[in-house]
Known about the structure:
Elements: E1 2-5, E2 10-14, E3 23-28, E4 38-42, E5 52-56, E6 63-69, E7 79-82, E8 99-102, E9 109-113, E10 121-124, E11 127-130, E12 142-146, E13 153-160, E14 170-174
Antiparallel strand pairs: 1-2, 2-5, 3-4, 3-6, 6-7, 8-9, 9-12, 10-11, 10-13, 13-14
Amino acid sequence: MLYYLDKTNFLGFQIPEDQCFPITLKLYDSKEGTEPFQTFTQKPKDKYYLGSTRFPLAIKSKDLYVEFTNKLGHTSNRIHYKVDPKETQVTPKLTSKDVVFYNRKNQSDYILVKNVTRGDVIYAGYGRAEVRREQIRKDGSFKITTSLDDNGGTLNIKYERNGYFTSEEAAIPYGKAK
């Protein structure tokens, strides 16, 4: 069973007990489209995952066509859904005002990302950090230990508010180590 969670722009589905894993879900913006704009694969580890799984919808169209393929290669007919993607569901891109850099000589470097909430996810450089309530500082920021170039540079950061789409990548400059 597939369902569209209209308040959060997520697509969810429930896996029947007799389903063969893995399941591949392909999303198209037209009935005749040959290339899916998104593909997701559900791969449970040695057991069935019965319940719901959520996938973010990165579409701007009002029509969504979904196709399932199981591990035996059986593919369903495309199922049509009317959706209402909301532009407001995309997390705003971070700016230099949102991130404070601590580039320190001979010490561990770190950054503070301001105004975070539990469940937010921050992608800084090559790492990923999910914000948990106990990690939020009194000032509402979140500390991420990272390695910064002593000569300064830029750090690529993406931000995902809980329940929203991931922001565009922001290249935020930082100064030399002190």
